[in-house]
Amino acid sequence: MRQYTHREFVKILIANGFHYNRHSGDHAIYLNDAGRHISIPMKLESVIARRLIKENNLETDIKKLKKLKKMSLNEPDGASVDARNPDLRTPEINRVVVAISQTLSATAVVEIEGEYDEFDLKRAVREQILLPSECASSCGGKEVWTEDDFEVIEE
Question: Which of 131-153 are b and which e, b meaning 16 or more Cβ less than 10 Å from the residue's Cβ?
Answer without folding.
Answer: eeeeeeeeeeeeeeeeeeeeebe
